[in-house]
């Protein structure tokens, strides 16, 4: 990774992050900035090319799903001439199905060998998520569905937040210095982070939470009301409840809720991790915890919440053990990935941020997040 920071590194690709090695997308070529004069040659192997097609098709399929939700009940009109998800999903299946079949066959062979040694079936060691799933089922459809599900729910969401954390560390050097000091104090320059140690790193959690607040991985969501019901009125001067008919879809935008000044204070659009540590917690967040919804809340809260926190914390600790500061390489961004010039005078984050956010089911940056980093000298 250090050598990649010299010409710039697209952190959004997630290609060198070790805890994601189960993802088939990591077989794809690692992108270089468009302004790098002589990038190293990319792999032209059949598998790398297939992985490149998989990554694009998977993103295209997510875009179709998002469009279907936005269009709503008239979606069938959009598909009068064919299923819009068919072509991208055919590409996804061509890449993933052989991997699933190979994993099933590998497990059968391993179980046979283990059985010959007189050891129980459960002793087969799992190396990847797919191996772990095979401990529960060998149904190829279930394995495929669950693998795609974790790619969507556990890859893109986590990678977006990691990308945005490093972006904010680039934008706010004082935050980066303070966070790195906490890392070196609690973990040291080379030691492996532990679950117990991560729990003690309050500023690290605050930085992650503040990033989740301003740029949640899932900026919009929707629920469908199964039965007719009512909601209490939000207007203190009007006690009449709000009627919600059965079958109605109720959308909300956490990215807007998270920036409301009446909920978060006058500095709601500022990046300030201390809001999760100082008196603002008691003043704004504790009275209504449901105003912070990066993982949803209540009975439907994200099952992977704590896994995601630990995953992001581990990665950021390792990153800050290796690098002491970051800066944005604005010249490396493709022109259409940069904010329009007229945004510079806009209020809030729109006039501050150096990239153009986009989203389908999850939020992302269209050209990744090109940064430069200074290697740690301790």
TrEMBL record:
The keyword Thylakoid does not apply. Heme binds at residue 302. Coiled coil: none annotated. Its cofactor is heme. Keywords: Heme, Iron, Metal-binding, Monooxygenase, Oxidoreductase. SUPFAM superfamilies: Cytochrome P450. GO terms for molecular function: heme binding; iron ion binding; monooxygenase activity; oxidoreductase activity, acting on paired donors, with incorporation or reduction of molecular oxygen. Belongs to the cytochrome P450 family. PANTHER family: P450, PUTATIVE (EUROFUNG)-RELATED. This is Cytochrome P450. It comes from Favolaschia claudopus.
